[in-house]
Amino acid sequence: GILSGWKSLHGLARASWIGFSLFRYNIALMLISAVALVVGSIVTLSSGLFFYHVTGLAPGEILYTHPPYDSLDPNITDYIVVIAMAKNESRYLDEWVSHQQSIGVDHIVLYDDNPSGSNSVSMQKQLRKYVESGYIEIHDATQWDNKSFVLASGITIQQRLYHPFLQPFFFDKQQKMLIEQWRRYQKLSQNRHVWLGQLDIDEMYNPKSDSLRTMLRRARSLGGRSVRVVKQEFGPNGHRAPPKGNVRTNYITCEKSGEQHTGFSLASAITGMASGCPHIYVTSSIAADALRGTHECNHWKGEDLPGEIRNGVYYAPRDEITLHHYQTKSFEECSSRQRVPHPDGKVVTRHCGSVKYTECDSSILRHVPEMERNGLSASSCSNPKFRRETLKRAEEGRISFCLKADDPVVEACLDHPGLRVRADKVPL
Hints:
The protein is an alpha/beta fold. It has two domains: 7-46; 75-347, Spore Coat Polysaccharide Biosynthesis Protein SpsA, Chain A (Alpha-Beta Complex). The chain has helices at residues 2-46, 49-54, 90-102, 123-126, 128-133, 173-186, 212-221, 247-250, 286-292, 331-336, 384-404, 407-413; strands at residues 78-86, 107-112, 136-140, 147-150, 156-158, 170-171, 193-199, 203-207, 226-233, 253-254, 260-266, 309-310, 313-315, 321-325, 340-341, 347-348, 359-360. Strands 1, 2, 3, 7, 8, 9, 11, 12, 13 and 14 form a ten-stranded mixed beta sheet that branches. A hairpin with a 5-residue loop joins strand 4 (147-150) and strand 5. The longest helix has 45 residues, at 2-46. It is globular, with a radius of gyration of 28 Å. The chain starts with a helix and ends in a 15-residue tail after the last helix. Residues 43-65, 288-295, 407-411 and 417-428 have low confidence and may be disordered. It is a single-pass membrane protein. Its main location: membrane. This is Glycosyltransferase family 92 protein. The chain crosses the membrane at residues 27-52.
């Protein structure tokens, strides 16, 4: 009886030990699986496979071969493409296109955002000579009106029918445009380095020391996969109504230092886009961009990194290249565009009477034909007397505008310490 009881206890203990061992192995297996899942997710996100395989972005294109980013093979050229969306910009479109040509842009992809039946001049008709030569191609952007896209997939919903918390998972039509062209140019960049850049029609690059192509080639030779360029806003320059002549000559007063940026990215290095960042591509991963925090989508972080590369991003120095943003133009034009919604549906107020335009910069005139400069030159603002008179005239025009402005715009004028405006527009 004792022997039988001992065998029973021994069997029970053995079974318990086996059970405990299996439990331990299961726990260990679960931990290993969890670690593998986390590591795998990080690798997937950081390699761009998240965009390729989860969002449906060109899944086969990862197999394409592209030239090394830092290749200096003279047989492999740098090809520059600018992508833009235009709406009611016929007045400035010709100058904008001419400027892209003058700085060395090889091809322009335009999306016409003017609805059919509008009073705007037909973009196809206005730019016919460029279209026929193949320099410009024009697509319809109105097909995406009032729509949002689930990341880069083809799934669409009516704009703003989702909670703001879900915003990071939706793209607007401006990003849809960029994703569409990225897919296309990835297939066309095996034998050349294709640089993709996104601009608005009120934005113009200003290469200062070298050509745009030379700057991009140098950035690539250093290991850069994308280039960030600081964006400087230019003000009304004292013009109440649209003046005659071109934008680059008429508007030379600007903010002292830009707070935002845009740039170019190598099509073969792009892995996707971040929601809410319509001006730049991601060339590492959405996870790396979110966690790294060194080059957020809109805010310029290159002040302390001029000419350096961080995580594949080349921060172009201000004396090498800047982006001129002619957002306001004349006071009348600025006022007429108050509270005009962006493609993502958000409404942005333009500060027409802002006092931040305290600098004079005429350097972009080196890209303007001499006969169109109105007697100015790229070095005009280097003359102290000219600079002083230009800023004085701009401030006088600003104050005159503020005293006569309608109430919605007057608030932007109140940031001047020497000017306070009553309801009857009389200065205190």
